[in-house]
Write a structure and sequence with these properties.
The complex is a heterodimer of chains A (280) and B (316). Chain A has a single domain, classed as 2-enoyl-CoA Hydratase, Chain A, domain 1, CATH 3.90.226. A seven-stranded mixed sheet of chain A has the order 3-5-6-7-8-9-10, with helices on both faces. A two-stranded antiparallel sheet of chain A has the order 1-2. Chain A has helices at 7-11, 37-42, 58-65, 92-103, 137-153, 171-190, 205-208, 231-238, 249-254, 264-278; strands at 25-27, 34-36, 72-74, 79-80, 109-116, 119-126, 157-163, 195-203, 217-220, 260-261. Chain A contains ten helices and ten strands. In chain A, helix 5 (137-153) runs parallel beside helix 6 (171-190). Chain B folds into two domains: 7-52; 59-309, Alpha-Beta Complex (2-enoyl-CoA Hydratase, Chain A, domain 1), CATH 3.90.226.10. In chain B, strands 1, 2, 3, 4, 5, 6, 7 and 8 form an eight-stranded mixed sheet that branches. In chain B, helix 1 (10-25) packs antiparallel against helix 2 and helix 6 runs parallel beside helix 8 (172-183). The chains are: A alpha/beta (280), B alpha/beta (316). Chains A and B meet through helix 1, strand 4, helix 5, helix 6 and helix 7 of A and helix 7, helix 8, helix 9, helix 10 and helix 11 of B. Strand 4 of chain A pairs antiparallel with strand 9 (314-315) of chain B, so a sheet runs across the interface. The structure holds zinc ion. Zinc ion (ZN) binds next to loops of chain A.
């Protein structure tokens, strides 16, 4: 459906370059401040002037959440087989190849197990730079396996989402990943193992409408776009302008669907405190 | 004859019309032989056209405005149906209907998307596009079924969940996600039937079950061909190619092991003979339900998880 509108950008990854420009300086998308990359990195890619949260990769998020040296990645090599031989203006097979080359990942997600402030956890983190963080069979399978690992080892699960939605080029297969991941989370919930969902900019479509909204605790990063349909589609459908702040994390919290909006710098401590409250 | 004739059906209807005209004039003329020949010809034409539909043509058939909708199937297949309304939180979404009824004498819970037939009823039904309260009503009714140990049948026919401001404010994404989560563990048999359009999360929101069936001329995918065209080809003009690329027909999904069974439709589509499709589907549902009711609830839920876990193709 409509949420894919956003992935137009995703398919042309060049649009994302401004977030992580080459060289020593970065410009804040929000306040236009010029910041040194070193200062930005030290501030966890949050603008020191206005608090804007830059989009970051799963690698960076892992560094933020895991205690240093404790992370062990798993399921690194699972790759899409392009089961439908999908071709639009470009071959899906080539999109995958190019994205692997560009990101060093095999799909839009990284999974690992390790410690977070001493708590053993399983973490899955999506990567928006890999075909717009879209969910195909690989993302679905890796989320499901992460949930299964959490279930079998009784470790809390944390998922960080960043996605334009389901991956069109895998058609019905990608749709079914919504059911598959949700089913694994339902079993995890029955076993009373905590699951914390962190939604970053943007989290839309089939990802929001499945695992992202199913946390025991749902957390948003400040200013993150979080919704089902993309704003452009909604605007097109209703023929009206959207209210200020519509679908931003703060708005979604006000409507009752996020427990918390947590700045990136406080994320690790907040999540590990919650885990401490919920698990033995 | 249907009032709405699709472009590719025109040769059939032209011929049918000709036959009818001849018949009305034939009282005292000896044209019996010619009529028989024409009848044969039109039947051959039907068979060849409907056997060779493109994926886009099937999408059009799935959307045919005269196709039976959920309430039509309920009327044809169930007795003593009582519609139940509301999500107990916000309101009653008319794009999803549900209630108890009897299938072959046995109480079941039936839930389905409901489209309208004309402008007025389509506005009333929001074109079969549910809001969050529709999914929450569906879940409430499913839990009611579980409470009294009744099987669940869902009928899927939607162009998608509604993308509006209110829908977002009331948590469209959460409502769909919650249904996927809950439906995966309900300890009663669930049969899902795609009776028309199965568009994306809006369809899947009532589409998790033990047996997934598709009527012969329906589609089910992550996105409608037109929207797919507009995003990937950046133009609305590539809907035919998009439909082909998405491989969204019943035989496609059976091959992808996403659905379990195809329900055959009358030649030309369900709307050409609603009674026939009603009888066919009723018979199949009774048969499928009997098989599922032999499975213990724990095992049913394990199998359901395994079923969806197996969906997808990857290498490692
Ligand atoms: Zn700034």
């Amino acid at each position: 459906m409509s949420w894919f509108k956003r992935s137009k950008h995703n398919i042309a990854p060049d649009n994302q370059k401004k977030d992580t420009p080459e060289g020593l300086w970065s410009k804040c998308d929000s306040c236009q401040e010029i910041i040194t990359k070193a200062a930005l990195e030290q501030n966890l890619w949050v603008c020191p002037k206005c608090g804007f949260h830059f989009r970051i990769s799963s690698k960076e998020y892992f560094d933020i959440l895991f205690d240093a040296g404790t992370c062990r990645e798993f399921d690194k090599k699972i790759t899409s087989k392009d089961p439908l031989g999908f071709v639009d203006t470009k071959r899906y097979r080539d999109r995958i190849k190019d994205s692997i080359k560009k990101t060093g990942l095999h799909d839009a997600i990284r999974c690992g197990t390790g410690k977070m402030n001493g708590h053993a956890v399983v973490i899955a983190c999506m990567d928006f730079t890999f075909i717009g963080g879209s969910m195909g069979a690989v993302v679905g399978e890796k989320i499901s396996r992460a949930a299964e690992r959490a279930y079998k080892t009784k470790k809390p699960l944390v998922i960080i989402s960043s996605s334009g939605g389901a991956r069109m080029m895998e058609a019905a297969y990608s749709l079914m990943q919504m059911a598959k991941t949700s089913a694994h989370l339902a079993r995890l919930a029955e076993a009373k193992i905590p699951y914390i969902s962190i939604m970053t900019d943007p989290t839309t479509g089939g990802v929001t409408a499945s695992f992202a909204m199913l946390g025991d605790v749902n957390i948003g990063e400040p200013g993150a776009l979080i919704g089902f349909a993309g704003p452009r589609v909604i605007k097109q459908t209703i023929g009206k302008n959207l209210p200020d702040g519509f679908q931003k994390a703060e708005f979604v919290q006000e409507k009752g669907f996020l427990d918390l909006v947590v700045p990136r710098k406080e994320m690790k401590d907040t999540v590990s405190k919650l885990i401490g409250m919920m698990s033995a | 004859m249907p009032r709405v004739v699709l472009e590719f059906e025109k040769p059939i209807f032209d011929l049918e019309q000709k036959i009818e005209e001849m018949r009305s004039l034939s009282d005292n003329l000896d044209i019996g032989d010619e009529l028989v020949t024409l009848e044969k010809k039109v039947q051959q034409l039907r068979e060849s056209i409907y056997a060779n539909l493109t994926r886009w043509q099937k999408v059009q058939l799935a959307r045919h405005p005269e196709r039976p909708y959920t309430l039509d199937y309920i009327q044809m297949m169930l007795t003593d149906f009582i519609e139940l309304h509301g999500d107990r939180t916000f309101g009653d979404d008319r794009a999803i209907v549900g209630g108890f009824g009897k299938l072959d004498g046995e109480p079941v819970m039936v839930i389905g998307h409901q489209k309208g037939r004309d402008t007025k009823s389509n506005l009333f039904r929001n074109f079969g596009m549910p809001q969050p309260e529709g999914y929450r009503k569906a879940l409430r009714l499913m839990k009611l079924a579980v409470k009294f140990n009744r099987p669940i049948i869902t009928l899927v026919d939607t162009p998608g969940a509604y993308p509006g401001i209110g829908a977002e404010e009331r948590g469209q994404a959460e409502a769909i996600a919650r249904n996927l989560f809950e439906m995966s563990r309900l300890p009663v048999p669930i049969i899902v039937v795609i009776i028309g359009e199965g568009a994306s999360g809006g369809a899947l929101g009532i589409g998790v079950g033990d047996r997934i069936l598709m009527l012969e001329n329906t589609w089910y995918s992550v996105i409608a061909p037109e929207s797919c065209s507009s995003i990937l080809w950046r133009s609305w003009e590539f809907k035919e190619q998009a439909a082909e690329a998405l491989r969204l027909t019943a035989p496609d999904l059976l091959e992808q092991k996403i659905i379990d069974r195809i329900v055959p439709e009358p030649l030309g589509g369900a709307h050409r003979n609603p009674t026939e499709i009603g009888v066919t589907l009723q018979k199949i549902l009774i048969e499928e339900l009997a098989a599922l009711q032999k499975i213990k609830p724990d095992r049913l839920v394990d199998k359901r998880l395994a079923k969806f876990s197996a969906m997808g193709v990857w290498s490692e």
